[in-house]
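Quick question, first post here. What does this chain look like in 3D?
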Amino acid sequence: MSMREMSKVVCGGLVIGLAALSPAQGQDLSGKTVEFVIPFAESGGSAAWANFFAPLLSKHLPGNPTVVVRYRPGAGSTEGANWFQQQSTPDGTLLFGPSGSTQFPYLLGDPRVRYEYKDWKVVLSSGTGGVVYLPPDLGERFDGDFDDLKGEAFLYGSQGATTLDLVPLLAFKLLGLQVDPVFGIEGRGDGRLMFERGEANIDYQTTSAYLKSVVPLVEQKLAVPAFTYGSLDEQGNIVRDPTFPDIPTFKEVCEATEGCETTGTGWEAWKAFFVAGFAAQKLIYLPGSASQEVVDMYTKAFEAMIAEPDFAKNSEETLGAYPQGVGKAAQVAHEQAITVTPEAKQYVLDWLKDDYGITMQ
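> Answer (accepted):
Ran it through. Tokens below.
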């Protein structure tokens, strides 16, 4: 073999060897800043969730880039999602963290929606829960059902009926409660502040925000938990939330409350949106322009993060006891989050029109 031929073999082998390396190994974000954008205010559960992951991503991404959480609230999160749809940042320096409040307008055909989930590339899924709570005077009258509270006039701070607040508002309807939502708050943290100021007498927070901001109120006897939305077992049944095993689920409270049914179209609609809004609530996306190489880089970083010995403990303290999905698990959660049956969708559309005058046109 001539020297020229040998050189070709060596060079060819080198190219093949480099190609065989893990794609993630070819990425380096040294000196760069990753913007982790959430379409909410900085006082709610999404903020707590994003700020939990930001420093861990900085640690596990190649080159240890600075990861900064940015807030783009507005229109129940649709403004931020519309903005993200227009971004073409392929190098891994832009992430987006929507929530059920972003999924619901998409599922319901809200005309404000100019984003398409199927265009984005998912790299992490986080299930979560939610807890509905009452002020102490009403909490004293709650004994596992709402029979004694059906005549109460409730005020509730809401981001909007087509946001994640759809789940509690529909739960209140099924329970037969008289709840007057005050629409227009920018984040669930603002709803909690209304509750603390006495401007609302029923509220809910997602698990991360409840652990951080409501548990202290409960400990001071300024709030009383009523129910969680629950969690799903492997068969798809609603069971007690693993983060709050001592608090009954909405299903349990509904079964105990006169007139509230856990069968039929209304119940199936509530459950469908609970799944889309909580069991598969929070996801982290890259823009559609991101290469598979960048997707693999993030998958590898999240896998290393989750494998840390103290991750489960720290995650549970901040986010609750819920699994974090990467790879195929994240893709399955993504598909669940953007899928609702036609029957459930129509029930919700009819309810929104009848109760709130909201039509999707």
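The mean pLDDT is 90.
DSSP finds 14 helices and 13 strands in the chain.
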